[in-house]
Amino acid sequence: MSDVLIIGGGVIGMMTALQLADAGQQVTLVERGVCGKEASWAGGGIVSPLYPWRYAEPISQLSRWSEGAYPTLALRLLEETGIDPEYRQKGLLYLNVDDEESALGWARQMGKPLGRVAADFVRQKEPEVAITHENALWMPTLGSVRNPRLGQALRARLLAMPNVTLREQCEVQGFRQRGGQVTGVNTAQGMLDAGQLVICGGAWTAGLLAILEVRLPVRPVKGQMIAYQAPLGLVQRVVLKDGRYVIPRSDGLLLVGSTLEETGFDKSTDAAALASLKQSAEQIVPALKQCPVAYHWAGLRPGSPAGLPFIGALPERPHVFINAGHYRNGLVLAPASTHLLVDQLLARTPLIDPAPFLPTLERLSHSVA
């Protein structure tokens, strides 16, 4: 029997397993597909909320801690696995921000180096970026990670750890209960018991909890993205304009995202989204009109009320924990939100105040919209 059984092999599940294993726990991670292949793979990898000043303080606390953790985590995984998560700290240019004063006030309060820059500065940093306003905002410390490779590195590290068991292609079919307490799960590969359970199935978490007659206000929100095969170095930094962004990779791929669609669990792509994403990308970087779109895909974010994740034990089920509902910020918040959950699992002093994230009866009763 494992100390902890984790359901869900995205970045949240894998980082939870890594931290528990580092702490000497026996961990089993169950994933219905292949680890790191759902929302963790589909996102862009910016290590910050898109407009961080528009979020509640608890999310900002998680974001600040996670941002500081990513450089060390990326280096660790590269050394341990040989797989480079490609953490890049080149900064972010914000174009056409309509609430600049709020942004600058937030930066002063947080001690963030966010400042107003002139159009000439943008042209110097990114000559191929079209700027239509006199000013932009610039955050030089912001980074990004190549999330598919982060997932590959986390999976490889867990496979090499003797106190971690990965069970992929292993869908949970039900929960084992004894005396009113959940003690394990039933899967197609058999029964699995554990002292504690962690459910972090992203957009699918609510369906899992429904088996336990727990209503979790988390829903799937589709996001479509595209990637151009561009000349290496066409764009060096993340650029954000009117809610759409371009993210450069080290091999010339230039990611563009993303849509927000309420379509249930449908992950199909469509021509309308492709055209919209191309239009946004080519307004930001006109030279992309001459580049081919190499990839077009979709993923499902776990939407939640106000984008505030649920992190902690279920009411009246002290051995069942959840970590879900990060909406657009799963990768952004993963290092801190998993650390906060592991603090609770191991009865350590918490990283930050866990109260805003706990799945209380009041929060569970809120509408998902």
UniProtKB/TrEMBL annotation:
EC number: 1.4.3.19
Domain of life according to the entry: Bacteria
Annotated keywords: Oxidoreductase
The protein's name in its UniProt record: Glycine oxidase ThiO
Gene behind this protein: thiO
